[in-house]
Amino acid sequence: MITFMLAWRYLRGTSYERSIATMVKVCLIGIFIAVAALTVTISVMRGFEEAMYEKLQGINPQVTIRNYGLPINVQALDQIFTNSFTEIAAWSPEEERQAIIEMPSSEQDQVVLLRGIDPAKIVQVVRLQNTIIGDHQDLMQLLHNNTVIIGKKKAEQLGLVVGDELNILYAPESRKKRKITFKTARVTIAGLFSTGIEEYDLGLVFCNFDFLKQLYPKAAYTEVGLKLKKGADTNAVVKRLRRTVRSYEVVTWQERYSSLVSASKFERYVMFFILALMTLVASMNIISLMFMEITQKRADIAILRSMGASHGLIRRIFMCMGLMITSAATLLGLLAGAGICRLLQQYPFIQLPDVYFTTHLPAVLEWQTFAAVCGVAMLVSLLSIWYAVRQTKYINIAQVLRSEA
Q1: Which is higher by pLDDT, 245 or 275?
Q2: Which of 173, 190, 210, 307 could form a disulfide with 147, with the two C-beta atoms 3.0–4.6 Å apart?
Q3: Between 182 and 214, whose confidence is greater?
Q4: Integer angstrom CA distances of residue 104 from 107, 134, 165, 329
Q5: Do residues 373 and 35 make contact, with C-beta atoms less than 8 angstroms apart?
Q6: What Å distances lie between residue 178 and 100, 175, 211, 219, 229, CA to CA?
Q7: How far is CA 116 from CA 121, 149, 167, 205, in A?
Q8: Strand, helix or coil at 265?
Q9: Domain locations in the chain?
């Protein structure tokens, strides 16, 4: 208790010394800005990650079972899911084939990936219906017979709108000699989707699997997407699936986009490290402040030592004083960072170009972010304060009492 009381008294006394009072303000402002900047930056980076994950999961299932382009026995998988994997909430099969969009008005045709899906099942696995532009988002009504859904960017590129018809060129499965003869299928654009991922919005076309089967009579499901129940351990389910269906490949959406996910996390860690250095620089002012305060309080330290106070007690007094300043600045910085992030969430006034996965600057508030920022700020400041106050043991008590006390 006496340690806190003396530290508080010394801290209040700094207001009477202009130079030390200025240093206290510099320390407060420096740590405040560093902590607030670190909090906002990490929250925004986390927001970009969440936006990317949401976009990727909007069209990719949590877990995918595939057979390298060969048919999958979906009936056998259904029995396995029902009997052994209660964590699986829904599953949806699909098949992909390459096709060409014929453009009579253009000399260059467009190569796309024609994905045949089961509209009733896919809506239970991914949020594809949420990517469809307009109020009409029922895939069961959109995908039937010869209707397709294409990306918004592809439609803008080709000058197409909902209701337009176009020709799709596809290669039949039976080829004689080495000559390929394309056949033509007339399709109607039933809807447009926008995932925010250029790869999909430009090169992917959705159709009903029954229609794909008409074009390719030998077509069969080659992939099965899975959605797990909330709270299920994805890694544990994937390991069990790999042991159970050894003939198929089982991958998560993170593994399918491992480079993108790793790059996003690495970028966040690098930004955290760089901005943590700002906290280190700001904490350097604490060292100067502690040296100034110790120098000014040499007489007090000598008197306390002559009265029997230990070196440990003297260090704790000045460390407590430094931690008061750091704690106040860190708390204010966290509150300011949280306020800025909340403002970005409520009022998305910072617009972003189309190259990003989101239209505005995102921010995600997580307790882990606050804990990490607070921990780094306090640890760096604590080390700085400890380095400064350990110099108190080198004060010559006798000389100070003779000349200053």
Answers
A1: 245
A2: 190
A3: 214
A4: 7, 28, 12, 67
A5: yes
A6: 19, 7, 27, 21, 49
A7: 12, 11, 17, 9
A8: helix
A9: 2-56+260-403, 63-256
| Residues 58-107: tens digit of each pLDDT | 788 999 999 887 889 999 999 999 898 999 999 999 999 888 887 656 55
Beta carbons of 292 and 22 less than 8 angstroms apart? no
Establish how many alpha carbons lie within 13 A of residue 282's alpha carbon, considering only the half-sphere containing its beta carbon: 31
> Which residue, 44, 346, 49, 98, is CA-closest to 215?
98
User: Do residues 170 and 99 lie in contact, with contact meaning Cβ atoms separated by under 8 Å?
Assistant: yes
Question: pTM for this one?
Answer: 0.76
Phi, psi of 403 (to 5 degrees): -100, -25
Rg of the chain on CA atoms, in Å:
32
CA angle 210, 211, 216 (to 5 degrees): 95
Tokens 């239209």 map to which residue? 359
**Distance between CA atoms of 316 and 344, rounded to whole angstroms?**
41
Q: How far is Cα 30 from Cα 257, in angstroms, rounded to an integer?
A: 39
Q: Report the 10 Å Cβ neighbour count for 185.
A: 18
**Sign of the alpha-carbon dihedral angle for 373, 379, 381, 384:** negative
Q: What is the per-residue pLDDT across 94-145, written as a single tens digit (0 to 9) for each?
A: 999 888 887 656 556 678 899 999 998 998 998 888 888 876 667 888 888 8
* Cα–Cα separations (whole angstroms), residue 4 to 20, 27, 152, 355: 19, 20, 65, 54
